[in-house]
Amino acid sequence: MDYHKISKEILQLVGGEENVQSVIHCMTRLRFNLYDNAKADRNALEQTEGVMGTNISGGQFQIIIGNHVPKVYQALIESSGLSDESANKTSKQKKNMLSAVFDVISGVFTPILPAIAGAGMIKGLVALAVTFGWMSEKSQTHSILTAVGDGAFYFLPLLLAVSAARKFGSNPYVAAAVAGAILHPDLTALLGSGKSISFIGLPVTAATYSSTVIPILLAIWLMSYVEKGIDRITPSSLKLIVVPMLTLVIVVPVTLITVGPLGAILGNYLSVGVNYLFNHAGIAAMILLAGTFSLIIMTGMHYALVPIMINNIAQNGHDYILPAMFLANMGQAGASFAVFLKSKNKTFKSLAFTTGITALMGITEPAMYGVNMRLKKPFAAALIGGAAGGAFYGVTGVASYIVGGNAGLPSIPVFIGPTFLYALIGLFISFAAGIAAALLIGFEDVQPEQAKAPGMPGVTAGGEIIHSPIKGEVKALSEVNDSVFSGEIMGKGFAILPEEGAAVSPVEGTVTAVFKTKHAIGITSARGAEVLIHIGLDTVRLDGRHFEVHVKEGDAVAPGDLLITFDIEEIKAAGYDVITPVIITNTDQYSFTDVKKSGMVKPNEALLALS
């Protein structure tokens, strides 16, 4: 896989570098904050090699890559002027309150997840070593490793301060100084002394800030306004000293007097609420959460739950949300393995097996998007698998005791505690239930490759004949005045300069995508070829004017069935080129033979052979 090629294609299709406010990545996704999400070509992105899907959540444009996302991200940064530190720019898009909150949570927590995950796994392994007698709790080795594991959590406000400052557009080092002040040993001792505390006559509420989440987020949010306000009224020659000095002397006391205690109270109530829910409706709550967690993962908002998980463990010593995520992932793995067991298509069988293994390791997007959702019924089976494990966890009260790693088998140490054995049994239940449900429900298999088809040399029955969808003149893609098509970024194919305003199906298959703007349509043939018909260039801007679609997603079509009618003259009058690219978006699965490369063609005339 050429990561630099993929990253360049992605950057172009999200609207270019000038449309990118910032970009970060999580375990499976590139997460863009774009100035204008409308400039991103989602359909083209979803057809790009290495891209499994796209999603917009909390105003954030997410591109699902899978296991290779760190390498694609690195290639993106290396080949452009982008940096995830560019978050101090202000987006032109307006977000509602809920979207803004989700965007902040995702943007703040995603960069610090490696530190939390690494430290959490160390804590789990240390606990495992003590449990099996491999290490004494009184040894110096234990003390040092405990400090290594606890460090990221004890000083979590420090990590969050830096990350939040970048998100809010503040100085990250001044933010770290704010966090350092509220974590200072002397201040911690004073707040824990039980004495009445005041600052210039104002009462200071005693609170503990180590390992907390909400107080520092509120503090840095406040700081972003204070710092910018002071900066606006301070002469340039004095900014270096005056701005940070006044920011610290204002923000830290206000945090201790109002913001910090408020955050601590909110955190306590949040933990109490989650505990109450699972203590009084544990079975129903866990069935619902584990059974629907894959839907949460689809939106990318599972990262919005990270602060709740951390807060639960800090306040209560355990958490119920992460176990539900584990169960959902095991259900996805089980459903994918069921496809592996039942599919007759050797290529798809291999894909189901490898993505199933990946899901067991905690990365579910390849199995979810590449296998289970593609076949539909296995995805429902995966949800059933998660719910089945959720019922067992609800009865036995399984919890996680640290936050670390992915929700997969390598992160099992997060369960080390009183319910560890039950945790292992529940994971097996979800996996087995996912397999059983998928086998019982069944699915329509991807058609296997067969012997060579007669009458077309070099073309197998597992390949395809692509017919002309339009009457007009055949053109090479290199003649299309659009680099995405002419550069074969979306795939190989051909183009037609239409004489009549009607497009018919070039293959036998199923309509898989009908663009809202009516200018393009996607069809997956019965033999697996993914065909995109894109009428005109930049015609998406017409917003459906001069087009009429005659099919809907899910319709079965045969060669010659009418798909779209369009007014050629009106489109030209509006200033748009009507040349129509016909692209095979899963190009990498085929070799190509031109049946006719130029000249006039009629609908249903063979143009391209795939093998």
UniProtKB/TrEMBL annotation:
GO BP term, pick one: trehalose transport
Enzyme Commission number, as recorded: 2.7.1.69
Protein name listed in UniProt: Phosphotransferase system (PTS) beta-glucoside-specific enzyme IIBCA component
Cellular compartment(s): Cell membrane
GO molecular function, one term: protein-N(PI)-phosphohistidine-sugar phosphotransferase activity
UniProt xrefs under InterPro entries: Dup_hybrid_motif, Glu_permease_IIB, PTrfase_EIIB_Cys, PTS_EIIA_1_perm, PTS_EIIC, PTS_EIIC_1, PTS_IIABC_b_glu, PTS_IIB_1
PTS EIIC type-1 domain sequence ranges: 103-461
Entry GO CC: plasma membrane
Active site positions: C26 (phosphocysteine intermediate)
PROSITE patterns: PTS_EIIA_TYPE_1, PTS_EIIA_TYPE_1_HIS, PTS_EIIB_TYPE_1, PTS_EIIB_TYPE_1_CYS, PTS_EIIC_TYPE_1
Chief localisation class: membrane
